[in-house]
Specification:
Layout lengths: L14 E2 L2 E2 L4 E6 L5 E2 L5 E4 L10 E5 L9 E10 L6 E5 L2 E4 L3 E4 L5 E2 L9 E7 L4 E6 L2 E7 L9 E4 L4 E6 L9 H17 L5 H14 L3 H11 L9 H4 L7 H12 L3 H11 L1 H4 L5 H16 L3 H11 L10 H9 L17 H16 L15 H19 L9 H10 L1
Antiparallel strand pairs: 1-2, 3-6, 4-5, 5-16, 6-15, 7-12, 7-16, 8-9, 9-10, 10-11, 12-13, 13-14
Helix pairs in contact: 2-3, 5-6, 5-11, 6-8, 8-9, 8-11
């Protein structure tokens, strides 16, 4: 492949995961008279006798290879290899010929893999994780080449021999090569690299333990401590060890359980008794979130008249609080639907909304600890900060590779680990 120059693009005909993908051969930008593109725009024929070495019929795909993924791949079926040895370009300037040689943008090739002929299927792909091209013949990988080019890359086909004819498959039909198995193999390799990173048992223990402490999972924490059967000395770095997360553990657990069960009045009562300064003025962001959750619970219980009265009474208190209008509007919109759970504001009735409120209350209580100097440490546990750092590192690595490859997704990595 090569860095693509500016090309006129037709309107996208297919989009996957927000990226245009190749679907056919480009009938506008090609080498013209040396080759003929069939009407279906997937077959290429070289009908003439080439008079010069540079009389090559070259055609690119209508879109560059998508890059926000682990792999990209396409195949070419050789319907007729032609009258003499030709050259079939499958990745812009990175090409394999039917003589089995690899061409890197020059007329002289180098020994690379097996030859191919009429009836063979050859393929070319990009492995963004390994930063390499790979080539196949009749369903088997024949070799890989380091990918030196970082820019957009176009799948490209070239014919150079009289009566040479090929058909391109951009994925509309099943591939001869098992690309799914190859993708899983690459994922397994990536996961193996992570598995080989050595982390001290005490460190991983502290990370999990601090997560349970931070969110008040007291019962789970007790079972975890028993299962681990490990006694750890406190780390010297308080920020990493979250040693203050045991603060008010029992109280936080009880409050979070109340919120998750929809008992907002009891939550206000308990906060007023134990942490009055969190709710004493009645107009803080925490109070606003709790009142919204109370409104949501009334709607959930189909007490619509009570919800209307409650909203009119309580939401007026927060008219001077910035950033609340959208949530108030979404709460009010719940009243407009017979089944609000299936509406555009149905997210408010999901458990995740209650968890958001519970997390905010949890952080507010942690911040009441006089030993906590940085309020930001109350918002997230050590585990979450670690995940954020890993994500930032992954994005930085991706930026150095022209933002190519898959985005970091923790769920996918965890599921991949389970399969392994």
């Amino acid at each position: 492949m090569s860095e693509a120059t500016s090309q006129a693009q037709s309107p996208p005909e297919d989009v996957i995961d927000g990226e245009e993908v190749p679907t056919e051969l480009d009938t506008v930008n090609n080498s013209g008279g040396f080759s003929v593109i069939r009407p279906e725009k997937l077959s290429l024929l070289y009908p003439s006798v080439n008079l010069h070495g540079h009389d090559v019929g070259v055609v690119q795909a209508n879109h560059p290879a998508p890059s926000k993924r682990l792999l990209y791949y396409f195949e070419i079926y050789v319907k007729n290899v032609g009258a003499k040895v030709g050259k079939l370009i499958v990745m812009d300037i990175m090409a394999i010929g039917d003589d089995g040689r690899l061409y890197r943008g020059h007329a002289k090739g180098e020994a690379f893999g097996p030859t191919y002929t009429t009836g063979d299927t050859v393929g070319g792909g990009i492995n963004y994780s390994a930063q390499e091209f790979f080539f196949t013949k009749n369903g088997a990988v024949v070799g890989t080449v380091f990918k030196e080019v970082k820019g957009p890359l176009f799948p490209t086909v070239a014919v150079h021999s009289q009566n040479e004819e090929v058909t391109v498959n951009f994925g509309k039909d099943p591939f001869v090569f098992d690309i799914k198995a190859y993708e899983e193999e690459q994922r397994a390799k990536d996961h193996s690299k992570l598995d080989n990173i050595s982390i001290q048992q005490d460190a991983s223990y502290r990370i999990v333990r601090c997560y349970l402490q931070h969110y008040g999972y007291e019962d789970t924490l007790k079972l975890f401590n028993i299962a681990a059967q490990t006694n750890l000395s406190p780390a010297s770095d308080d920020r990493l060890n979250d040693q203050y997360s045991t603060y008010a553990l029992n109280e936080r657990r009880n409050l979070l359980q109340l919120i998750r069960s929809g008992k907002i009045d009891d939550t206000f009562s308990m906060l007023g008794q134990l942490y009055p300064h969190v709710v004493q003025d009645g107009t803080s962001a925490i109070c606003f979130l709790l009142h919204c959750q109370k409104f949501i619970e009334l709607v959930r219980d189909a007490k619509l008249e009570d919800a209307i009265l409650y909203g009119r009474t309580e939401f007026q208190k927060f008219k001077n609080l910035s950033g609340v209008d959208e949530l108030v509007k979404d709460c009010a919109a719940l009243l407009a639907y017979g089944d609000p759970s299936k509406s555009s504001v149905g997210y408010l009735l999901q458990d995740s909304q209650g968890e958001l409120v519970a997390d905010a209350v949890n952080a507010a209580i942690l911040h009441t600890n006089s030993r906590v100097k940085d309020a930001r440490l109350c918002m997230h546990s050590s585990l979450e900060r670690l995940i954020r750092q890993v994500t930032a590192c992954y994005l930085e690595k991706s930026s150095l590779e022209w933002d190519q490859g898959e985005a970091f997704q923790l769920r996918r990595m965890v599921e991949s680990g389970k399969k392994g």
